[in-house]
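Figure-free illustration: sequence to structure, shown twice.
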Amino acid sequence: MPNSPNAAAARETVISTRTGNISGSTPPKQKQKWRFWSGACFAIVLLAVFAQPLLALINYAAGSQLYSYILLIPFVSAYLLYLRRDQLPKNCVVDLPLAIVSLAAGLGVLGFTYWLDFAGRAPANNDRLGLLTLSFLCCLAAGGFFFFGRGWMRAAAFPVAYLIFMVPMPDAMAEALETASISASAEVANLLFHLSGVPFLRAGNIFQLPNITIEVAQECSGIRSSWVLFMTSILAANLFLKTRWRRFVLVAFVIPLAMLRNGFRILVIGLLCVNLGPQMIHSLIHRRGGPVFFMLSLIPFFLVLWWLRKGDAPRTRRPQ
């Protein structure tokens, strides 16, 4: 009995489907897996190449009061990527120009750092680690543009950009912030002492109280807690606020909040010395009280965040 036209067409469809699977292009899922594992291998190789400066950065951050937060930054960025996993595009297109630019920037910073060493003008350890870490991040971004493309990097822009806080501040920047923080804290403390009614005399950053003289020194700058609060505000603004101006307000609010916290700490220590005795200058509230005042500063910070978030909520139309 001859084969029917329908049966012949079905056989042709099966044969064409099989040949299509053999000779056709790679399925999208396989491409996605290939890109993921290729990118992972690139990251592993990059970590191996920069193993020495990264290990030096870890040891430096672990022993530093100012830069201990660096140890948490990669985990924060990884968690942010995990939260955005459904927003990351599945179809990736290689962005070769941006990959080349990022790689050139990373290799340029790396070459400049080692040229300084060779020329006998090696920077301080803090600045050298900052340059090497910046070089690593530029090369990592180059891998992102090459293996995942511009669309993926745009969707992951904030988690990737947040890695910049792995770079230690240059010494000149840290000293400038510290000097500004000391001056601002002294001004706020001066205002608070006036409001408290305690008699005092001021000469620059030195306050003469009834039974003790207090100087707003380097230890009173609060630069570490202020910098951590600044990073927290950027993170919270991105996670909980949608409007740009509200994000800007939250981040900008950190500046007066940091000055007020430092001035309030000076006021508390001064009042304790006046009322309980000058020995309070050596108490734990002075030597180890930074985290306590940092936690207190989070109260107005979260209140402002709550207020901004409340106004940022989408408005629902009332039924006509």
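We now fold a second protein in the same way, so the two outputs can be compared directly.
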Amino acid sequence: MSTHRAGPARAPGAAEPELPLQHSLPAPSFTRQDEFDREREAILFADWFCVGREESLAGPGDYLTADVAGESILVVRGADSPGGSLAGFYNLCRHRGSRLVPVAGSQPGGDGARSGCAGTAIRCPYQGWTYGLDGSLRSAPFLPDLRRYRDRLALHPVAVTTWGGFVFARLDAGRGGRRPLAGQLNGADRRLAACPLAELRSAHRIVYRVAANWKGICENYNECYHCGPVHPELCEPIPAFRRGGGGDLDWDAGIPHRDGTYTFTMTGTTRRAPFPGLPESDRTRHRGELILPSLLLSLSADHVAAFTVWPHDAGHTTVLCDFLFHPAEIARGDFDPSDAVEFWDLVNRQDWSICEQVQDGMRSRLFTAGYLAPMEQPSADVGRYVTDRLGAWRAGHSQARAD
């Protein structure tokens, strides 16, 4: 039975009163390919995109390839210092366009990043054009006259930076000026300072193919209004996820676990030790961060579930879930990540299933836009982010045409 009372009768022809709910992004934002194509240019190529973990680039010549919304890129560890700086390039030979190293997986986006070692140089497998680890052209067989044009034939650059052991790439490196990653972290570096993210190592990965738009996945991650109906197991260790639709959660302080639990496993406990140096207050609290457009983090005292979001088109996304643990725990003879893996796999599948149901429903001709309840304001952040980026991109293109 509804508890809403009927208002006064409206005069014939009077306008409907405004609903006290904010609108979501419109349906085409989630379902139309031309909207996705605009997002590729304005967001996925223009902002910092998380492409992997720095641990896969340990030594000189180590590389990873990643497919960012249909563009293959290459990140390489240089030999210019003991640590070696990172450099990024399009995975594209300047001669005939061959891929310099194999792309990840058998479909666009594959399984995220693929790693290997190029040695001291990057050699095209087609006709042998060879590039230094800094992207400069070193040699082109039987074409000695090209030496004078090496600067013009260097690999196309991609900006690269790191934070917390994660590698971020910005494909639009030649446009838009300098964009520090800190702006996209939006304070996550401060809130997660106590967690030794850069020290952690991946011990397990699950690959999910999700028939849903990348923004719907991010919005779902960023609110807990759905936690009660969708995630009963998740609400057991953290009952606050169920209470009030999660509208009163203090994410800056962390969300407290139920007494006797302190991590995300079926029992809420584990044999693994908390991260070294973790404050007592964080040993029984969960922290979560959404770093748009591509990195989702769920932190417990002993492990981190790190999700990278790889959009393919308007209705399909790959999500990689990497389980990060402290090296001291991984080195133990009895190390077993399965308690965290099994818990998160259950929760993840619940999320992807509901995201796919939402995506399917948004294709209805009767769906024009959704509504956001007050406790879904974190989801509204995704819409604002997308709207702001698209607006700036359109303004830039209009100015360019005017010039």
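Summary for the second example: The longest strand covers residues 201-210.
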